[in-house]
Amino acid sequence: MSTERENIKKELKEISSEIGNLETKNPFMVPDGYFEYLPHEIQKRKRVSESSTELWLGFFPREMIRIAAVTLILVVTAATGLLLVNRPDQQMMVNHEDDELYFEEYLAWYSDYQQLDFYELISENNLQADDDLASEDVLIDYLIDYSHYYQQSIDELIVD
Amino acid sequence: MTELADSELLEMFRHSENPDYAFNLLVRKYQEKVYWHVRRLVMDHDDANDITQDVFVKAWKGLENFRADSGLFTWLYRIATNETITFLNKKKKRFFIPWHDIEKVLGDKLESDRYFNADEIQKKLQKAILSLPEKQRIVFNLRYYDEMKYEEMSEILDTSVGALKASYHHAVKKVEEHLKNN
What we know:
The complex is a heterodimer.
Chain A: H1 3-15, H2 17-20, H3 34-58, H4 62-85, H5 88-114, H6 118-124, H7 136-150, H8 154-159
Chain B: H1 6-15, H2 19-42, H3 45-63, H4 72-94, H5 99-112, H6 120-130, H7 134-144, H8 150-157, H9 161-181
Helix pairs in contact in B: 1-2, 2-3, 2-4, 3-4, 4-8, 6-9, 7-9
């Protein structure tokens, strides 16, 4: 019995004689021949791990990867340039149309859900609607302006 | 074949034309220790098998940059411990198991495990060990089953020797209490 083992046993008995006097047994088992086979399994997993990281790169010739990378950079640069050159008023129009559609759908759903009409929805949520909000279209325009002005999303605008 | 020393294995891994062979020798040298360390923490053979394989794959990837300022054996144990803790945390999250219930889940699993063969007292001991907090469980296993020195444990768990001694003391007391009350 090695000294370290003796020390450990002695220490254990000092803390708890009950556990110290138990025989230290390993109650777990493994399938027959498991440790003979395990190194092969590890080698297999290692190969899979290596090939999976190299697969998508290793599949293409180096030159092709280089060309693809340059093409991607050019496309991104061109797209960024187009966005910058694009007129701001056109951008605003597109955004405005998107906003309008989104507000319309959201308000329709929300008023339906709350069983309120558009005007009740406005007063319920303490928004300061002008008296001259004659139609739903005007109301939607008003809400869009309102949300842009206060930088609130539609959800915050209606629900808060 | 005589087992090579860690330094010889590392030398062979770094400078031979066939690092795979050196790595295979390393696996054969440490696979059982790593497996049993993991198995005692996760209980289940399939889980332990999976984690052990991952441990060695990680070791393979890190071996090139391994600095011999810590022992190869403690380095492997450190990877194994971290992998096991990560596995248990994932398991908890995946199955929404609170940490204090994981002992019950693992304990129940033991009952039906065909690779678990214990008499009544050993079963009770395993369940008592399972009732320990994670860190104490690791410390208890390393000292009780692996007969590891506190200094080595300190390297693996990055904890002071004094704290480890206290942790082991508490763990043994709790196991004793559990055995008395169950």
